[in-house]
């Protein structure tokens, strides 16, 4: 299990009271300090100058108290809150913006150095949101691995299965992998988490219902259907994580671990060609 961040490391800032329940869900999973800025404004708390602090002013005062932030609200609000705050990518706190419907977890600031990219994936795992990563390093990694595994599969078994799968693709290497995708019931498999941590790969968790609704692309597994309720894991998980991608390696199995590989190297060019 991924341990929660220490309280001093993470700040959670819901812009509106309506987002408090979502903020509490994040805090229960990730830890951190939960702010309720609307209470200060409603109570009429004043600064030394006798004026009520706006949310933007409150956030400015709190910004450097934490290494990482989850701001629940619109991206435009986050941009205004951050105006004049960032100084250096090596010291700026990371900021992830999550909309109130928990649809998108956007790595907005300090993606690599501050860990916002990884935090966006953790927010996504907690809420079912789509992680949005725009840093160039991720953009040039075209491969997504879909992984399914039996219970208590070890990190070594998963690593061997991944190496076997990539070895079937000419020129493919682990360094080209952007993320790993799996089904939600495997989200806390120790071996899978250890494999991802060892290779600094984010884990994308796909809901069982979403995988069940995905058109099958390979040979269905009766065992997986009986025990999990879906026809397969690795192929649909990888394709859902990379919807513009192409399945370049269907399900391969080794020692209780299944791996599929999706390549979206064509990116928007490929999507444009398909649309035309």
Would you give an account of this structure?
The protein has helices at residues 20-30, 37-43, 55-62, 75-82, 116-127, 136-139, 155-167, 190-198, 208-212, 222-228, 234-241, 267-275, and strands at 10-14, 33-34, 68-72, 94-98, 104-109, 130-132, 143-149, 177-183, 203-206, 246-254, 257-263. The chain has 276 residues and is an alpha/beta fold. Strands 2-1-3-4-5-6 form a six-stranded mixed sheet, covered by helices on one side. A five-stranded mixed sheet has the order 9-8-7-11-10, with helices on both faces. Helix 1 links the parallel strand 1 and strand 2 (33-34). The model has no long low-confidence stretch (mean pLDDT 89).
Brief digest:
The chain is α/β, with parallel strands linked by helices. Helices cover 37% and strands 22% of the residues.
Secondary structure layout plus pairing:
Blueprint: E1 10-14, H1 20-30, E2 33-34, H2 37-43, H3 55-62, E3 68-72, H4 75-82, E4 94-98, E5 104-109, H5 116-127, E6 130-132, H6 136-139, E7 143-149, H7 155-167, E8 177-183, H8 190-198, E9 203-206, H9 208-212, H10 222-228, H11 234-241, E10 246-254, E11 257-263, H12 267-275
Parallel strand pairs: 1-2, 1-3, 3-4, 5-6, 7-8, 8-9
Antiparallel strand pairs: 4-5, 7-11, 10-11
Helix pairs in contact: 1-5, 7-8
